[in-house]
């Protein structure tokens, strides 16, 4: 009988193990680790502060090292690998998929990775070196070379006998690839078709034609979007000569999807998406200060706008008190639009054909919300500061800034993308700078003209 | 020979089709649509302004309606379905998976969905009604009931004969489920094991024990994290009596992963993650204004803090000019931490056992970056405003606020999560309010004490 999975259990284990580490009960920890799947140990490592990680790694069965490394995120993996000897690493990679070994080796310093390769047998080394020769963010970098190929002119029962002699198929195999003498892909035979077909049928008559295949240089995000749309579990990869060179499986694609989505979220907050939750303080502080430096420029830009209105501010403190409201609302409204556009760009929904329509729509939303909040905030200011003109100035600035925010929210990510700058990273900051500057200019400008 | 996929082609089609719609060349559009896969038509609909969507839908072969609806995001699907008659909808759902029909029906008004159900044959209707009885965000809502079950005491060649008689297996079948007489799950037989085993082997000897199974009430995000960690392609779902009730396939899980990740990103910008890129203006404006309303409260809170220092602001305009810098830097630094913590919470990396360590680490980072930017901005202010005391005040406020931002950035999302409030939605706004208030209080407070 299967046990029903308890999801609180994972957190309980985490709690138990970290307490045990603190108390030095290493035998208990080792026993816990022996009962855990490699992917759960990886999760435990990610969730552990750095000093506990070292202890955990020492207490883990080295047999599991390879599978665990494969599941760790970039930064945590680097952290763990940095302390391993090349021989231990080479042993750990035994039995791992080629693409996963390449993933581990890529992040190592060149001499260490050469050391690990030197420890492998020739066949394995050549396979891994081939995988390393493709850029990491392409189909070539994602694929595995363990394809099972068959010929088209044989019968189903011959295939079954062949597979029984092989006795094992690579993980996540759902399809056999049908190739010609030159190893060019001509069709796919899914296992479901194989097991439901009569033994005397010829492969060529029951296979699906290979009408779509991924090439080695396809970008990994394009691979992910194809898998998502076509509901594939695996897909063949061919080179420019139509030769079958490997296959990509859904588990690696899921990682790409997760990373791409995390990338947008983390970048929008000015964070590196590789950042380990328990990264070293100095390293994190340095990485993050880059973004704070960009914000210093943005904040000083805003300050120099208000500086232009120094004499106005001198004459009326109420203006200084209220001047932050307009940029704040513009920033929030504009960032709503930026998030929508970044998602649309990532999903491939936004292109030359519909940008204008999107701009019209977001400008209209900005205008409508501008009117709403101009009335509300104008009213609040009139009542609070008992000044009708000041209220009207607030209204005018609010309407202008929310309208500008809608237009800038669409234009900025699209322009950044055209300039090959990541809109998720730079979009929000650029938008906020514009809404700050416009908001302050209009509010302080109107105040200068009508109040002082 | 497979064609090599051209990813620019999708955008080209989009461009061509939308031009053709504008010019009324509907024959061309219909021909284009006939050549496209349903999932690509779905993509085209999502990327099209609303008025083009209607035309596209009219020109699409009704045979494809079901598959297209299944691929559309919530809002776009609602938009399209709203214009369909129940009979057309019932026809469209023929041949769709039960879970996908349930997905389409869930979003319909009750009377329409009853109308559609009434048009189905009894067996289908019962299956769909069962699916509808599970909450949408649980394993029950994700699963499909088309499981292929076998007994443990039969031989491999009997299974193969049985499958050949069936002649077809449900999509994405990679495993047959082994059940006892009461339909309780006792094991899994993967197709790869089936095709590599000798014909006289008994199922019970070659199957994997069902040591982990998902129950119907498991949350969909927990299902997704299990699939990700275990690299599953499909998984059985059991009820409280260990009875096999369905299976979940990776394609539906990928949707959950994508939606969860998008949810974090969109929520952090105060957006509904269902929002259609081309949603109606009024609907969007209303949805977004809720978040702007929350921000009005935050902005007014900040304004009332500066209001407390009205007399200080009256005496020195430079203070008003500089007072926005400290809250701005605190907001950016704090939101970096918030993004890290939200991701950690979503991945299950943060729990009771490591919160303190995380707090210490983020406070240290805040302190370090606080010192750095205190020195830089203090220096800039001294040079710009030629006022050493004002520079020191800037430094003190900056250091305090970045330190507070680190602490608040960890605490706020964790506290919100404990209160069952979505940290992705409320975290950033709560953080910004705190860094605004603290930043202004400290900067204006110090200025009041030391300068006026």
UniProtKB/TrEMBL annotation, chains A, B:
<keyword id="KW-0129">CBS domain</keyword>
<keyword id="KW-0460">Magnesium</keyword>
<feature type="transmembrane region" description="Helical">
    <location>
        <begin position="428"/>
        <end position="451"/>
    </location>
</feature>
<feature type="domain" description="CBS">
    <location>
        <begin position="207"/>
        <end position="265"/>
    </location>
</feature>
<keyword id="KW-0812">Transmembrane</keyword>
<keyword id="KW-0472">Membrane</keyword>
<dbReference type="Pfam" id="PF03448">
    <property type="entry name" value="MgtE_N"/>
</dbReference>
<keyword id="KW-0479">Metal-binding</keyword>
<dbReference type="InterPro" id="IPR036739">
    <property type="entry name" value="SLC41_membr_dom_sf"/>
</dbReference>
<protein>
    <recommendedName>
        <fullName>Magnesium transporter MgtE</fullName>
    </recommendedName>
</protein>
<feature type="domain" description="CBS">
    <location>
        <begin position="143"/>
        <end position="206"/>
    </location>
</feature>
<feature type="transmembrane region" description="Helical">
    <location>
        <begin position="390"/>
        <end position="416"/>
    </location>
</feature>
<feature type="transmembrane region" description="Helical">
    <location>
        <begin position="315"/>
        <end position="342"/>
    </location>
</feature>
<feature type="transmembrane region" description="Helical">
    <location>
        <begin position="363"/>
        <end position="384"/>
    </location>
</feature>
<feature type="transmembrane region" description="Helical">
    <location>
        <begin position="290"/>
        <end position="309"/>
    </location>
</feature>
<dbReference type="Pfam" id="PF00571">
    <property type="entry name" value="CBS"/>
</dbReference>
<dbReference type="InterPro" id="IPR006669">
    <property type="entry name" value="MgtE_transporter"/>
</dbReference>
<dbReference type="InterPro" id="IPR038076">
    <property type="entry name" value="MgtE_N_sf"/>
</dbReference>
<dbReference type="InterPro" id="IPR006667">
    <property type="entry name" value="SLC41_membr_dom"/>
</dbReference>
<dbReference type="Pfam" id="PF01769">
    <property type="entry name" value="MgtE"/>
</dbReference>
<dbReference type="InterPro" id="IPR000644">
    <property type="entry name" value="CBS_dom"/>
</dbReference>
<keyword id="KW-1133">Transmembrane helix</keyword>
<comment type="function">
    <text>Acts as a magnesium transporter.</text>
</comment>
<dbReference type="InterPro" id="IPR046342">
    <property type="entry name" value="CBS_dom_sf"/>
</dbReference>
<dbReference type="InterPro" id="IPR006668">
    <property type="entry name" value="Mg_transptr_MgtE_intracell_dom"/>
</dbReference>
<comment type="similarity">
    <text>Belongs to the SLC41A transporter family.</text>
</comment>
<comment type="subunit">
    <text>Homodimer.</text>
</comment>
<keyword id="KW-0813">Transport</keyword>
<keyword id="KW-1003">Cell membrane</keyword>
């Amino acid at each position: 009988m299967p046990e029903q999975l308890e999801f609180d259990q994972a957190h309980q284990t985490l709690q138990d193990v970290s307490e045990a580490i603190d108390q030095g009960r290493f035998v208990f920890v080792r026993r816990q680790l022996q009962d855990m799947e490699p992917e759960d140990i990886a999760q435990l490592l990610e969730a552990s502060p750095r000093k506990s990680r070292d202890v955990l790694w020492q207490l883990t069965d080295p047999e599991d090292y390879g599978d665990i490394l494969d599941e760790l995120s970039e930064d945590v993996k680097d952290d763990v690998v940095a302390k391993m000897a090349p021989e231990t690493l080479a042993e750990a990679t035994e039995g791992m998929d080629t693409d996963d070994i390449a993933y581990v080796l890529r992040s190592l310093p060149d001499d260490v990775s050469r050391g690990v390769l030197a420890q492998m047998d020739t066949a394995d080394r050549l396979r891994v070196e081939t995988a390393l020769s493709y850029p990491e963010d392409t189909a070539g970098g994602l694929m595995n070379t363990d394809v099972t190929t068959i010929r088209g002119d044989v019968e189903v029962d011959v295939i079954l006998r062949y597979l029984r002699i092989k006795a094992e198929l690579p993980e996540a195999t759902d399809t056999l690839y049908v190739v010609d003498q030159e190893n060019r892909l001509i069709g796919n035979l899914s296992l479901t078709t194989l097991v439901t077909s009569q033994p005397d049928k010829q492969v060529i008559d029951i296979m699906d034609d290979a009408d779509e295949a991924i090439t080695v240089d396809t970008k990994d995000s394009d691979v992910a979007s194809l898998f998502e749309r076509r509901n594939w579990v695996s897909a063949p990869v061919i080179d420019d000569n139509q030769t079958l060179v490997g296959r990509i499986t859904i588990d690696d694609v899921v990682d790409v999807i997760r990373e791409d989505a995390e990338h947008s979220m983390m970048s929008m907050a000015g964070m590196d998406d590789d950042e380990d939750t328990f990264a070293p303080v100095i390293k994190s502080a340095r990485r993050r200060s880059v973004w704070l430096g960009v914000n210093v420029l943005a904040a000083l830009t805003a300050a120099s706008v208000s500086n232009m209105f120094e004499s106005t501010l001198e004459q009326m403190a109420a203006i200084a008190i209220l001047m932050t409201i307009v940029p704040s609302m513009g920033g929030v409204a504009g960032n709503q639009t930026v998030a929508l556009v970044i998602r649309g760009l990532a999903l491939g929904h936004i292109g030359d054909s519909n940008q204008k329509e999107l701009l019209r729509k977001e400008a209209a939303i900005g205008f409508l919300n501008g009117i709403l909040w101009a009335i509300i905030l104008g009213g609040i200011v009139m009542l609070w500061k008992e000044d009708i003109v000041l209220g009207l100035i607030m209204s005018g600035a609010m309407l202008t800034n929310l309208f500008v925010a809608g237009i800038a929210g669409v234009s900025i990510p699209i322009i950044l993308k055209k300039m090959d700058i990541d809109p998720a990273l730079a979009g929000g900051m650029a938008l906020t700078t514009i809404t700050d500057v416009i908001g302050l200019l209009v509010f302080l400008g109107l105040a200068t003209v009508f109040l002082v």
